[in-house]
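queue> pop job 88
queue> type: inverse folding (structure -> sequence)
queue> payload:
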């Protein structure tokens, strides 16, 4: 007789939220295992933050059910909230208080006794590397330090489920890496289940699994490596004059489906992006086909989650917004 499969720690079933005629979350169903880092990836308007608000009880759902450990729960139930730690997208620490004073305030709100609060404050300050700065006013902290202090505050009561809305927003790459290193340590040491919303592909790479949301709907759910594998090969990136015209010429000459990608600089021209199974073999053919200096640079890279988003949704994920392919690009490539 086969063993009964353990119920997922968190299960969302048919979650739906409308704002007037707009459906912000459209029948969302997914499961998260205990100790898993699970991400909701999508642009602004995809339904990520609304899902965050529904799970934390800040907004009431129009339909859908929520289960923890196989039992249906209500997000507004105090017993459910005791199991959650919530980090909001916008900063919520008091800049005039010291780091330690912010944590003492948080401990009082969680109902911790003085002795327990001091023990937990010492523990979480070490966890987020702020023990040496705890006596300084938060207004002296960098953005990354403030984010880590917020994480420390929600960990005071040892939540089973940590839910964070755009935790990497406003952080530089060094601060983001340190923040995520602490999250991974937290999962390893306490088996905390972590659910994050993000529009940053780099941040999403830290997740064990990702749900891609677009227009309020779940369009894919898999490991980051599995999502990237949908691109189906290498990615060739070309910087050239008249990129829109180049897209059409490459499509005709090589029977490929190139697309345009926004330049890193706002003033720069779009880049031409091609998915190819053997990109290193395609590059010499491109250089030979366009020998008159039109190609300023040609580079090869492995697929990213941003590429996977294009492949799955047919749109580019840029700066938190999903943009339709520009004129001259081939939607069929996505």
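queue> result:
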């Amino acid at each position: 007789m086969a063993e009964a499969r353990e119920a997922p720690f968190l299960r969302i079933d048919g979650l739906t939220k409308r704002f007037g005629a707009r459906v912000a979350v459209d029948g969302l169903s997914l499961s998260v295992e205990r100790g898993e880092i699970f991400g909701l990836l999508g642009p602004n308007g995809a339904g990520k933050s609304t899902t965050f608000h529904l799970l934390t009880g800040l907004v009431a759902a129009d339909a859908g059910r929520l289960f923890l450990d196989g039992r249906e729960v209500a997000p507004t139930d105090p017993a459910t909230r005791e199991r959650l730690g919530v980090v909001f997208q916008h900063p919520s620490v008091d800049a005039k208080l010291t780091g330690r004073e912010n944590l003492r305030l948080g401990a009082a709100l969680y109902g911790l006794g003085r002795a327990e609060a001091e023990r937990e404050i010492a523990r979480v300050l070490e966890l987020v590397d702020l023990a040496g700065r705890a006596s300084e006013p938060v207004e002296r902290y960098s953005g990354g330090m403030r984010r880590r202090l917020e994480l420390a505050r929600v960990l005071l009561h040892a939540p089973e489920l940590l839910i964070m809305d755009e935790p990497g927003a406003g952080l530089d790459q060094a601060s983001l890496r340190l923040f995520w290193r602490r999250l991974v340590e937290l999962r390893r040491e306490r088996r905390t289940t972590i659910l994050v919303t993000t529009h940053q592909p780099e941040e999403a790479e830290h997740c064990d699994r990702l749900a891609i949301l677009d227009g309020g709907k779940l369009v894919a759910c898999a490991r980051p490596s599995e999502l990237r594998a949908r691109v189906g090969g290498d990615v060739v990136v070309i910087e050239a004059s008249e990129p829109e015209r180049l897209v059409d010429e490459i499509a005709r000459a090589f029977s490929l489906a190139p697309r345009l990608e926004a330049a890193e600089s706002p003033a720069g021209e779009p880049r031409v992006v091609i998915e190819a199974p053997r990109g290193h073999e395609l590059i010499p053919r491109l250089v030979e086909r366009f020998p008159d200096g039109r190609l300023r640079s040609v580079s090869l890279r492995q697929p990213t989650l941003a590429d996977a988003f294009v492949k799955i949704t047919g749109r580019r994920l840029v700066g938190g917004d999903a943009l339709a392919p520009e004129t001259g690009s081939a939607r069929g490539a996505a």
